[in-house]
Write a structure and sequence with these properties.
- The structure holds two protein chains of two kinds.
- Chain A is an alpha/beta fold.
- Chain A has two domains: 162 residues, P-loop containing nucleotide triphosphate hydrolases (Rossmann fold, 3-Layer(aba) Sandwich); 68 residues, no CATH class.
- Chain A is 31% helix and 29% strand.
- In chain A, the strands form two sheets. A six-stranded mixed beta sheet of chain A has the order 6-7-8-3-9-10, with helices on both faces. Chain A has a four-stranded antiparallel beta sheet with strand order 2-1-4-5, with helices on one face.
- The mean pLDDT of chain A is 94.
- In chain B, the strands form two sheets. A two-stranded antiparallel ribbon of chain B has the order 1-2. Chain B has a two-stranded antiparallel sheet with strand order 3-4.
- Chain B is globular.
- At the A-B interface, helix 2 of A face helix 6 and helix 7 of B.
- The complex binds adenosine-5'-diphosphate and magnesium ion (MG).
- Magnesium ion binds next to helix 1 of chain A.
Chain lengths: 235, 295
């Protein structure tokens, strides 16, 4: 294992009940790297993140996190190793206020952002801290879902479609935040449909198809392989 | 002497007081049921048996170990809670993924077993359990005599219910509970040990039932049969209040105790059925219960 390798996924198969969704996913992420999982709808990207978090049904294969095998761990143990998960559906709790949502995830490591820093980064959340979480607008809910895993000291962030369905100015803002996080040395897996959002941010891109990695494209190959990528994504 | 609709005031207030005492038991028991249902999605049919266990253990502690009321008040809820935790770990945890009906059937079966075991060893005769000396007698309020023990039961119940509500709605631990109730999988993926919280929630709800049992012991004949009447009324209370609302179940419990008390004054024949009449009316008007959320 190379010293800088933070996440290594090998032969990952995952099931929902009887449905076999992932058919041997293989990829690695280096410490401080931002990779993107691209793919068409239903390709298995969300399932890959959920499998990493222990949220699918049966899983086989290997998931090494910072040198530790986590495939058999329950999801709270995985999170406690320093993984922050931002789900596709955002997962804002209606029974909690904005601030309670923000403060919910317990610390899993040192060096997370403080609540003040987060409110500075996302002023809307500060203004609406006492509102019910689900009363926020879609963009605010997305910011909240992202902000609450930045507080915990998690070093690996699994972000599922954070730009989906949001106004361009908010997408812009989120891209800035990701750049900021990269500069703070977070390791990030960015699942995206919107490759225009992901491409400038990702150091490497993996295209997922039918529950497998179809190809890998590094940032510096992007210009030359744009046609191939667009065909794979069907855009 | 003052009258109210032809009823002497002291008699009326006395019945209201008694109603509030019953309401206190309803509140404690339905609160436990609501907390358990919120987290485990199980309608806990062992609740009546745990209440009976609370009273029986208090009586046993006194009869066999010479431990008085105050000891029991503290330790019996802990023992009942621990017993429930063992049940949760050994049996309930395996059926969460199945249809909720299995939880109902399993806890119903367990209630029969617990009741059967106590009947086997202690028979069905009622055992007396006396009011602790500190709480015997009554306070003269001028317009009525307030038996100290009744006031105590109401006070304990209100304080415990409010503390539970505060803990769930206003504290950090409570936010974990609410989150785990709403989305257990995601909450666990944030690093919160949800299975342990589920276990402790069941233990806590059971401990409330055990506490209600200890509080009830001096007010009634302690016997393995004491669960049956109480639990049927409590389930009616839960249906009226609606599942899932903490404050709702407490208010409904106290309110229905009062309604029962009033009915005793004005139309005693209906006092044991009035709760069910209210239940029918509520079901017709608001099927999800007074405080329940319609799906
Ligand atoms: N809970 C589930 N149960 C069964 N099948 C599912 C479930 N969630 C997703 N799937 C299926 O798994 C496949 C991959 O879905 P997903 O991982 O959500 O794709 P993506 O995120 O790439 O759009 C799809 O065919 C989808 O229908
Ligand atoms: Mg998806």
């Amino acid at each position: 294992m190379s010293a800088t390798e933070y996440l290594r996924v090998e032969r990952l198969h995952a099931f929902y009940g009887e449905s076999h969704i992932l058919h041997g996913i293989d990829f690695t992420v280096r410490r401080g790297e931002c990779v993107s999982l691209l793919g068409r709808n239903g390709a298995g990207r969300t399932t890959t993140l959920r499998a990493l978090m222990g949220l699918t049904g049966r899983r086989t294969g290997s998931i090494m996190l910072n040198g530790r095998e986590i495939i058999d761990m329950p999801s709270h143990r995985i999170a406690q190793l320093g993984v922050g998960y931002c789900p596709e559906e955002r997962g804002i709790y209606s029974g909690l206020t904005t601030e309670e949502n923000l403060l919910l995830p317990p610390r899993v490591g040192s060096g997370g952002l403080s609540v003040e820093e987060l409110y500075e980064m996302f002023p809307n959340l500060a203004e609406r801290r006492h509102s019910q979480g689900t009363r926020l607008s879609g963009g605010e809910q997305q910011m909240l879902a992202l902000a609450r895993i930045l507080r915990t000291g998690a070093r690996l962030l699994l972000l599922d479609e954070i730009s989906e369905g949001l106004a361009p100015v908010i997408v812009q803002k989120l891209a800035e935040v990701i750049r900021d996080l990269k500069s703070r040395d977070y390791t990030i897996v960015l699942v995206e449909q919107n490759f225009r959002f992901a491409a400038p941010l990702a150091d490497r891109m993996f295209v997922v198809e039918h529950g497998q990695i179809a190809t890998e494209i590094a940032q510096d190959e992007l210009a030359g392989r744009m046609g191939e990528l667009q065909t794979l994504l069907g855009v | 002497m003052a009258d109210f609709l032809g009823v002497p005031l002291p008699a009326l207030l006395g019945q209201l007081m008694l109603g509030l005492v019953n309401g206190s038991f309803y509140a404690l028991l339905s609160l436990g049921l609501a907390v358990i249902f919120g987290m485990l999605h199980i309608i806990n049919f062992t609740h009546g048996a745990l209440y009976m266990m609370g009273a029986m253990l208090a009586w046993m502690a006194s009869a066999y170990l010479g431990l008085g009321y105050w000891w029991s008040l503290v330790f019996v809820p802990i023992v009942v809670g621990a017993f429930a935790v063992v049940i949760e770990r050994s049996l309930l945890q395996w059926i969460y993924k199945l249809d909720h009906l299995y939880g109902l059937l399993l806890t119903f079966g367990l209630a029969l077993i617990i009741g059967g075991v106590f009947r086997h060893f202690f028979g069905v005769g009622g055992q007396p359990y006396s009011i602790p000396p500190e709480l015997t007698g009554a306070i003269n309020l001028g317009f009525m005599y307030l038996p100290k023990y009744r006031a105590w039961v109401i006070a304990v119940s209100v304080v415990v219910c409010l503390a539970t509500w505060y803990m769930i709605e206003k504290t950090r631990l409570g936010s974990y509970l609410r989150a785990a109730t709403e989305n257990p999988a995601l909450t666990q993926a944030f690093g919160i040990n949800v299975p342990i919280m589920v276990m402790l929630t069941f233990g806590f709800g059971a401990a409330l039932a055990g506490l209600a049992g200890v509080l009830a012991a001096p007010t009634t004949q302690v016997s393995p049969l004491m669960s049956s009447d109480m639990i049927i009324t409590v389930f009616a209370v839960v249906v009226i209040g609606g599942m899932g609302s903490i404050l709702g179940s407490v208010l409904t419990g106290l309110g229905l105790g009062l309604v029962e008390g009033l009915t005793k004054v004005f139309y005693a024949e209906a006092s044991s059925t009035v709760v069910f009449v209210v239940m029918v009316i509520v079901l017709l008007v608001r099927p999800a219960g007074l405080f329940g959320k319609e799906k």
